[in-house]
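Problem: given the chain below (376 residues), write out its structure.
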Amino acid sequence: MTHGTPRRSFLLGQTAADREAASLGQVINQYSNEPHLVHLSRKAMAGEFEICLPAAIAGEATAVALEALDLVQSLEAQLSFFKPDSDISEINREAANAAVEVEPHLFALLQGAMQLWRDSGEAYDLTATPLWEVWGFARRAGMIPSPEQLAEAQALVGGQWVELDEAQKTIHFLRKGVRLNLGSIGKGHAVDRAVEHLLAAGVSDFLVHGGYSSVAARGSAVGQPFQADTPSPHASQAGKPDLLSSPWTIGVKDPLSDERRLGQIELHDRALGTSGAQFQSFRHRGQRYGHILDPRTGRPADGVLSVTVLAPTAAAADAISTAFYVMGPEAAMSYCRHHPSIATILFVPESGNRWKQHHHGLAEESADLLAALTKP
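Solution.
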């Protein structure tokens, strides 16, 4: 059910980006047994953002959800690489000439991205923009760059060219031509800001997603408060509702078959992000080149079909899923072992149109998915 007011227009339907994200494996359960959800949506960041509320609390929470969607739209003006008056565009124009002051939330986002650049062995890099352009993905017209073009672009890539001053909240580029693009983290950041707004207003039961590939959930799908003293994740105490009987569930599809669902993840006070290049790619002489680039080699990353990450925030889930796509399963598993708050599942191709999965940190909330993945 969609609510609207004369002052606002909520446009429904899927963009190409939404279709890609859904095909990568994330589908919000529409609760055939518990269908009482209110959906509010807004076009932003080349996709659609949606807030799902339990009908039991929607009367009180709808106005807050609309404010959160307003916030998401305002963030597009800050984060967009394509808007010439955005904060990111100003940084890209000016930061090589002098330090540029950065809004605090955006500065914290950039700090997190730079930390991931270090922790991922430079596999995640916001400065990979010149590579993205030289491969033609900025124009959605893929092309094979010449060795000279590739070398010129790669000379401008690397977190070593970015200097952040925490005390002054400024950013400075140490080489002209360096540019940032937040396409791998911006939607997750917008989801997180919407979550913050809802929680600050006292709304504790909701799900927010940006095109299905960036998802964050809090509380229950029926609008009941979380029982912190419930002894078991699947047990109820007398007189107390069982939160997990109506979880927010995210379906995970087979990466090679959009029609086949492998299982689901029950999302509780956590975020989920998915990365894959299956639907943004081009072929040249029989070889497929995807839009997720390895900044260390300058070439499209290869060897992974899709990655799903569970993390405390949607921005972290988005960025880490991109990093894992580049890093591959062995390095991704090592990262998870050193970062206990992160869980993941990676699908890698095998011969004969088959895949192999690697996972770490998935627990009871993914029991049926794990059973499907590990059966003979």
